[in-house]
Amino acid sequence: MRVLVTGGAGFIGSHLVDALVMGGHSVRVLDTAPGGNPPEAEVFLGDVRDLSLLDRALEGVDAVSHQAALIGPGDDFDDAPAYVAANDFGTAVLLGAMARHGVRRLVLASSIAVYGEGCYECPDDGVVTPGPRRATDLRAGRFEPVCPRCGADLAGGLVDETAAPDPRNLYAASKLAQEHIATAFARTTGARVAALRYHHVYGPRMPRDTPYIGVANNFRSSLAAGLAPKVFEDGAQRRDFVHARDVATANVAALDALATEGPIPYGSLRAYNVGSGTVRTIGELAHALSRACGGPAPVITGGYRLGDVRHITASSLRIRTELDWSPREDFAAGMAEFVAAGART
Predict the structure, then answer these.
(1) d(CA 100, CA 191)
(2) Per-residue model confidence as pLDDT tens digits over 223-233
(3) Which terminus of the chain is less hemmed in, N or C, by CB atoms within 10 Å?
(4) Are the C-beta atoms of residues 174 and 80 closer than 8 Å to each other?
(5) Prediction pTM value
(6) What is the spatial distance between Cα 146 and Cα 152, in angstroms, rounded to a whole number?
(7) Beta strands 280-281 and 238-239, pairing class
(8) pLDDT of amino acid 216
(9) How far apart (Å, rounded) are the C-alpha atoms in residues 114 and 201?
(10) Residue 319 in 3-state DSSP?
């Protein structure tokens, strides 16, 4: 199979390119900057919005894995045009070119950020979706969301792909828009699309200044300077941290499924959550990195950022059962590798 990987020189994309090359596939990379891709990969330097470049990169391609994106939550709403231009317009240009070239298989890098807050159940009102947390509650150290109907404490759970989206920042909104654009592409052209909603990805090759899973980078940078990691809120925020190599194999599994008469129907998009399957807290992440570095223990600050979700953990049962994928990387070993690798410049 000949696969075009947009953003293939980046953090996740480069791991995917390695996995594809090792699997015997022919790989093309489209990225704005050169990376350390294997010599077997054919590299096209430029932006995914460049039509002439896309026409060359898509010639003879069987499938596309679209990893290129502007990442991070967005610092200010003035960033909105940049997110729409890079993520949504960029996706529209790519899919238009794919339609012209007759390429009908797409794996789209999406995010669990499309869900907003996680899955919650109220003892009286059942499954509920809490709204954004209030600054007054956060200042008072009341970090847990409460039932929007009766104010009761909530029990958290795992979000599955049937949950209604509720994006809480620019990045999340742009990712959901990408999914909608890709759905329209599938319905119009008869294409098949797998949207992989990544959990919090970590691993070697993560750039120093990336806002992607910034908490792991921030903790690592503090420890490298001999400082204790500073943990917001009470450190009990629940997440799922998945290794970049596991995300790469999830992409390969999706591409393989698109090449066969599998669970993804023609003319449709099917979403898959991609996580390790183990729920951990931000505090546990900080302690794991401290142990890996042999550095000082984390400090719980009680600080907060408006717009942060309290808990978001998703079920990866669908991709495990339908695409026969499972994560293989050990968390402690992955943290040690992440620390030893240092930040990518």
Answers:
(1) 12
(2) 989 999 999 99
(3) C
(4) no
(5) 0.94
(6) 6
(7) antiparallel
(8) 83
(9) 15
(10) helix
Return the residue matching tokens 């919005």.
Answer: 49
Q: How many residues does the chain have?
A: 345
DSSP 8-state code for residue 114: G
CB < 8 Å & 24+ apart, contacts of 251-254: 251/16, 251/19, 251/65, 251/107, 251/109, 251/196, 252/16, 252/19, 252/20, 252/23, 253/319, 253/323, 253/324, 253/325, 254/107, 254/194, 254/196, 254/319, 254/323
Residue 210 has pLDDT above 60, yes or no: no
The answer to whether the beta carbons of residues 2 and 60 sit under 8 Å apart is yes
- Indicate the residue type of 209: D
Question: Average pLDDT of 122-141?
Answer: 94
Tell me which residue has tokens 């050990």: 330
What Rg value do the Cα atoms of the chain yield, rounded?
20
The alpha-helical segments, DSSP class H, found in 207-281 are 214-224, 244-258
> Which residues are paired to 63 by β-bridges?
3
